[in-house]
UniProtKB/TrEMBL annotation:
Keyword Membrane annotated: no
Protein name as it appears in the record: PaaI family thioesterase
Alphabetized UniProt keyword annotations: Hydrolase
Domain Thioesterase: 45-114
């Protein structure tokens, strides 16, 4: 069983660093990640590219799975893009666990900006393995 230190989870992830995604807080099964997008993450219309919003949402559900002791990958997802954000704004995730089984998990996630829904999605994860979590105190110190 692999050990994962939550404090280092984002520090060792190059994609998360490149995307400017940061851990904010965990409250029950609601994991809040924040992203302050850079100019290069915006499309020709000067709105945040949908792939960047999806990345935040996918990262949130994957991290929530790890926090709950499971190494999992996205098997299926459905995302509705509802609104857009402009440069200089920050988006964040809100998650909710719908199902946890031996081999799959279903997690809903909403991307928000200033209490406005940007996108809403449902992710089905395939559980690869269990993981041993260390660094849980990190979750308590981020609130």
């Amino acid at each position: 069983m692999k050990k994962i230190n939550l404090k280092n989870l984002f520090k060792d992830d190059e994609y998360v660093k490149k995307s400017n995604i940061k851990f904010f807080e965990l409250d029950g099964d609601n994991l809040v990640l924040k992203m302050k997008p850079e100019k290069n993450q915006f499309n020709a219309y000067n709105i945040l590219h949908g792939a960047e919003i999806f990345a935040l949402m996918d990262t949130a559900v994957g991290c929530l799975s790890i926090i709950n002791g499971k190494k999992a990958v996205t098997l299926d997802s459905s995302v509705n893009f509802i609104s857009s954000i402009s440069y200089g704004e920050e988006i964040y995730s809100n998650t909710k666990i719908i199902h946890v089984g031996k081999s799959t998990e279903v997690i809903e996630v909403v991307a928000m900006c200033k209490n406005k829904i940007i996108a809403k999605g449902s992710f089905t994860l395939f559980v690869l393995d269990k993981v041993e979590i260390t660094g849980r105190e990190f979750l308590e110190t981020t609130k």
